[in-house]
Amino acid sequence: MILTGPDIAFEQARGRLTLQPFSGDRVQPNSYDLTLGPTLAYYTGDVLDTRAENPHREIEIPAEGFVLRPDRIYLGSSVEEIGSNHYVPIIRARSGAARLGVFVHVTADLIDIGSVGQCTFQLRAVEPVRVYAGDRLAQVTFWGVQGDIVLYDGKYQGSRGPQPSRIHQDAAAQVTA
Amino acid sequence: MILTGPDIAFEQARGRLTLQPFSGDRVQPNSYDLTLGPTLAYYTGDVLDTRAENPHREIEIPAEGFVLRPDRIYLGSSVEEIGSNHYVPIIRARSGAARLGVFVHVTADLIDIGSVGQCTFQLRAVEPVRVYAGDRLAQVTFWGVQGDIVLYDGKYQGSRGPQPSRIHQDAAAQVTA
Amino acid sequence: MILTGPDIAFEQARGRLTLQPFSGDRVQPNSYDLTLGPTLAYYTGDVLDTRAENPHREIEIPAEGFVLRPDRIYLGSSVEEIGSNHYVPIIRARSGAARLGVFVHVTADLIDIGSVGQCTFQLRAVEPVRVYAGDRLAQVTFWGVQGDIVLYDGKYQGSRGPQPSRIHQDAAAQVTA
């Protein structure tokens, strides 16, 4: 089951989910709006590789906004810290961002139960789009679970700002295992 | 919980969700098929902007079909009116469309509870793809909720045809608030 | 409700869902990791068409990996056979793949209840990315249902390896109906 807006506010108030900072006017019928933080990251290599470390650069979005290029994957983050030890958060775009052709994730929308931090957005624009820090691009929904809960204790815990991929650590782990 | 196909048909029959027109052969094991309406919209500017109105143009899909260009975001709509005051609709591509590289949304898949209208598709093709009005590109699933329900009463209510982004109204609202 | 990792393992052990081969270290807090099989398929035509058969070619990923081109949709498959007669599987990318700009589906993430087989990935890379057979690119989640269950009995049942789109069979079915 997906939490309604009133239930998101209720569960936030009694500490069963994290939405920090919280503002009542961000509560939607079944979700909570998330805003784009000021920092973006992108990779500098010509060919990325799932089994190598991929160098990246960070930029700050200027006041006049920043134009996302369609041929590049950008990592951003939510201003808000989000998470829950009781529900599974799933992110998605707000309709207005998506109707401009801005993906806020690249099919990785689920946040593990027990993970808390600023959410990394995987931003991809179909056409060039100027975005601004503070844009309400995304929203988070919360979902009830079935079964015993084992909380997340992984490599992205407590994230602040955009976090590049660490998928190459999987291969290294397999080689040394 | 996600409704099964038989439950979608049952809830439609007793008026707890809207699927109009409804046809029993569109019911799938956990979803209902949606067809592409005759009108597409696309933006005419070179750089889109989350804080400006973005001019757009509408076209009718001719009988011989229309080729989606990979560098453009198209807005389409479902023939069907969909919605529910009791369940949350979430849209996705049918497998056959996705296997041709046609996205039917750009990470905005959730329809607010209480919103009723033709669904706006955010269409993006990885390679050029010819599509036709009436293609069964998408499907809608319905999800149970936890908590008190406050129905949607927002800016896209009662949509007919593809609706361009109104995200720039967020910024205007903040400036004047 | 979404199954927790412990419940995925429990339901797998008592035969209520298929994850084959199964390894306990692939269980995540709310999902199970899926690996990329050795075969990719892509279309050879310049313009794809929802109402025509679209010729395709298959390749084997070499040991040194294969670079996904951004202008092409690739079909891959999971090594694992997955499915359930009791829960609805939904796939998504692992975070590490998505943060490199690799989509593992093109908005078709839901697997019909009763469908069992290797899962077809719809792969699309925002930038060129080298991938390898065995990469843990994706994950599957399982969701509880409401209503009577009618099991899937469709055209992709028992899939092995990447399966190209058969959407053109819809149109043929309508013409002859």
From TrEMBL, chains A, B, C:
UniProt entry keywords in alphabetical sequence: Hydrolase, Nucleotide metabolism
Pfam assignment, any one: DCD
SUPFAM superfamilies found in the cross-reference section: dUTPase-like (SSF51283)
Entries under InterPro entries matching the protein: dCTP_deaminase, dUTPase-like_sf, dUTPase_trimeric
Protein's recorded name: dCTP deaminase
UniProt source species: Streptomyces goshikiensis
